[in-house]
Write a structure and sequence with these properties.
Strand 15 and strand 16 form a beta hairpin. The longest helix has 25 residues, at 320-344. The protein contains 7 helices and 16 strands. By secondary structure, the protein is an alpha+beta fold.
């Protein structure tokens, strides 16, 4: 069988002529990028969290003893911790603390660690705050309340001795059942009983009667919340008030929430603890506009860095039991409030103007009528 020879095909020279498509591609240039008439201003972060201290300037035992010194009759150099009008008068917890051993430049920095099991209902909130996960200074544990079977509304707040590891009861916060903070109004959120604060008592006709100081302060506080339309300048903030039994109480502190949406949403924000500042007329100023902060807790958006509590005020460090009890209660309530809003979505509130102007409500009226 003869072998066929392969012949190489001659390659034609490339065509130098350009068709319309090629000619268009040679002269084509990308269009100029769009330039707005006015450059958009950069949108800064709503709550910039930068340059925060990472550790305290004093050891943890210092702040533990400082918080406990609020309840001792004599501290440090044997000075009385409370000034009273009479020797048998009850202690007044709003007096200025005077002790030369207090470090006015001390800085407290602790972190929040949450151990709440959110898959078990009702949710029992549980978290603690300290310099490390295994070194708590304050802790809160939600437990069943006698007033509510569907919610764990009783918060047991404790303070731990960092040297001996002993826990001390600080406060029992009883949250009101079935709270609805979405609708307007003025609401009593929780009742706080400071178990660590001694209460002056007297025996009258064989019965023990609790008395309070002349300014209305005992060991019971209430945490309230209201909107701006109802409370004016004190609205949209949590107020911690000493209960006096009268019409007006004495404010201990205010809690202002900025941007934070609860533990279950990784949203950057913060909660400020504001002092109760009065004007020349004796009225409490708007806590949103006061410059001084007793303490601030920062929440990071990355979901990795734990929330950071910073307190640089010496008076707040002395009254840390009271301030921390209110703060922990606010954190639990704000988390529940955010969960309710997330569940309801964009539904209009019952009884609101949007609700009654809805077409579904109008059709329902026609059907019912």
């Amino acid at each position: 069988m003869p072998i066929r020879k392969t012949e190489k095909k001659s390659q034609a020279p490339p065509d130098s002529s350009t068709d319309r498509t090629g000619e268009y591609s040679l002269i084509f240039t990308r269009p100029e990028a769009y330039k707005p008439v006015q450059a958009a201003a950069p949108t800064p972060a709503p709550h910039a969290i930068t340059g925060l201290p990472t550790s305290s300037t004093r050891d943890l035992n210092y702040f533990f003893n400082l918080a406990g010194s609020l309840y001792r009759e004599t501290v440090g150099n044997e000075r009385p911790a409370f000034s009273s009008a009479a020797p048998d008068a009850p202690p007044s917890f709003n007096d200025v603390f005077q002790d030369t051993s207090v470090d006015s430049s001390a800085l407290l920095v602790i972190w929040l660690f949450r151990q709440t099991m959110t898959h078990i209902f009702p949710i029992a909130e549980r978290f603690h705050m300290g310099p490390a996960d295994r070194q708590p200074l304050y802790s809160v544990t939600a437990q069943p309340s006698i007033r509510s079977a569907q919610e764990y509304n009783e918060l047991a707040i404790q303070r731990r001795d960092p040297i001996n590891g002993v826990w001390y009861n600080v406060c029992t916060s009883d949250i009101e059942p079935s709270l609805d903070l979405v609708k307007p109004g003025n609401w009593r959120v929780s009742k706080l009983v400071m178990e660590s604060i001694p209460v002056w008592k007297k025996v009258l006709s064989g019965q023990v009667i609790k008395e309070v100081a002349h300014n209305g302060q005992g060991n019971t506080l209430k945490l309230s919340w209201g909107d701006r339309n109802t409370l004016g300048c004190l609205g949209d903030a949590y107020g911690l008030w000493w209960e006096s039994g009268g019409e007006h109480g004495i404010a201990e502190a205010f809690y202002v929430v900025e941007g934070w949406k609860g533990f279950d949403s990784n949203v950057q924000g913060l909660v400020k603890v504001k002092p109760a500042v009065t004007d020349e007329n004796g009225q409490y100023r708007d806590p949103h506009h006061t410059e001084r902060n007793l303490a601030v807790i920062y929440f990071h958006a990355n979901g990795i860095t734990p929330p950071q509590f910073v307190c640089a005020d010496a008076q707040a460090q002395i009254r840390l039991d009271v301030i921390m009890s209110g703060l922990m209660t606010v954190l639990v309530i704000e988390t529940r409030k955010a969960a309710v809003i997330k569940e309801l979505g964009a539904l209009p509130a019952y009884g609101s103007t949007t609700h009654w102007s809805s077409k579904l409500v109008e059709e329902g009226r026609d059907v019912m009528g």
